[in-house]
Amino acid sequence: DGYTLGACTIGNCAINPAIYARMPYDIERDLIPVFWSGSVMNAVAVNNSVPAQNLQEFIAWVKANPGKVNYGSSGFGSSNHLIPELLNGRLGLTLVHVPFRGGAPALTDLMAGNVPIMFANATSALPHVRGGRVRALGVTAAQRLPFLPEAPTIAEAAIPGYQIAEWYGIVGPRGMPPAAAQRLNAVIGNII
Questions:
Q1: How far apart are CA 166 and CA 10, in angstroms?
Q2: Residue 27's closest CA among 45, 14, 39?
């Protein structure tokens, strides 16, 4: 009807079109942006058995144990699957992917010591970092996060210019009247 809205995330609007040959929609052809909701950064979260105390030690530890260091993710193609894969490629690491059925089970197994590392949503990891159940060695943000100031950015510690954010937004169908998209943008902006 020209007024149906959808959620657009880094997963369904950026990652999926890049990794799947066939999609039921074409981002460029079928959708128009209505509202950018925000973004969330990831933290390099490790369980307390990991000997590394900072990102440099973490990188050295992974390099000294090629193919032996696992990381958990919320599933194949998720941002916290692809972020470590980017590090593998950029730094010559051999982190091994262990997919879970969601971020919560992966984070639970991280705290239990079943996987040593997860590139977790920073806000989801925060209570566990503050509670001492995991440690945050770094973040994927451009600057240090105000709520995790002790965790350096990957850019400052290892890869200059490195920044990745999970982002969220609202989209409408191509052909939505521009005035409707602008009005929805204003209304949603006032609510949020």
A1: 6
A2: 14
Residue 152 token pair:
């350096």
Q: The dihedral of CA 121, 123, 125, 129: what is its sign?
A: positive
Q: How does pLDDT run across 46-100, given as a tens digit for each residue? A: 999 999 999 999 999 999 999 999 999 999 999 899 999 999 999 999 999 999 9
The token pair at 11 is: 């997963």
Gap between the Cα atoms of 11 and 29, Å rounded? 18
Reduced to 3 states, what is the DSSP secondary structure of residue 1? coil
Separation CA 127–CA 63 (nearest Å): 29
Collapsed DSSP state (helix, strand, coil) of residue 22: coil
- For residue 41, what are the CA distances in angstroms to 80, 108, 164, 168? 10, 19, 7, 12
